Here is the input.
Amino acid sequence: MPVGGTAIHERAERMQRGGADLVTRLTGSVCVRQTSRRVVRPRRSSSGVSIAAETRCEGMIFFHLFPLSSGNRCMLWALMLAVIAGCSATARRAPETDPTSVRIVYIISHGSHAGLAVRTDDIPAGVLPEREDFPDARYLEVGWGDWDFYQARDFSFWLMLKAGLWPTPSVLLVEPLYVSPRGRYPCSRIIELRLDAVRFMSLLNYVNGSFDRHGTSRAAALPPLYPQPGRFYPAHGRFHAFNTCNVWTSRALTAGGYPLTAPRPLTAGCLMAEVRHFGYSLAPAPACRRP
Here is the structure.
């Protein structure tokens, strides 16, 4: 069993597979598949400003409804429709950026979970004081999730079910990166976004305000449940099926001026499909590329 950040992100991939297993157990599903495709290519307006292409995710879900009561069927259908609706986007104008004050934010997908990373040198004094826990880090990656499931070392079907169906407390994971995000995650899907100083500060303020510091100037890290480089901190907000880690990331991007669609994208795939039109997809390492 790997430890550290690798264990966290391998667990995220297991969570993605576990999501299909959840529907299977609830409904007798024989197939759960979700794909996304671009409908319109990115284009430029007459003013030269990039216009985001229309994106659509198509969910294909085959299941046997007999084991469910009528009430549970309605709840399951509502969840499925919300996932599909949250995976659609229409053409949006990309926000303009002041070229004299560019800051970079990286959106990193770990399968079912997407977080964001920034350079520590770009964080102003007084913002994210928790960075003092990682004095040598070049970048900080931040993600939000369910209190119990996010901190668990091993995958738990019960914790996943509880996190999805009941509003539960949340935590933030701050992980130090000592190399670039691409160097740390050579095979992960990463999108580079460029913001001016004002929009970057608005995004940081959203992330900073997500820490539950209980009236103190700096949040205390939670006791680690297993060895790993990152640390968990109490967070504001309740996690549930319609307020996921990817919804939190999308809200941070909205605070930074990106016109993401409503309802919020619930899955990492849908979030990345929408955000890619506003930034640059970083090529994976050569060893990770398919022939």
Remarks:
- The first strand starts at residue 31 and ends at 38.
- The first helix runs from residue 5 to 27.
- The chain has one domain: 5-284.
- The chain has a mean pLDDT of 74.
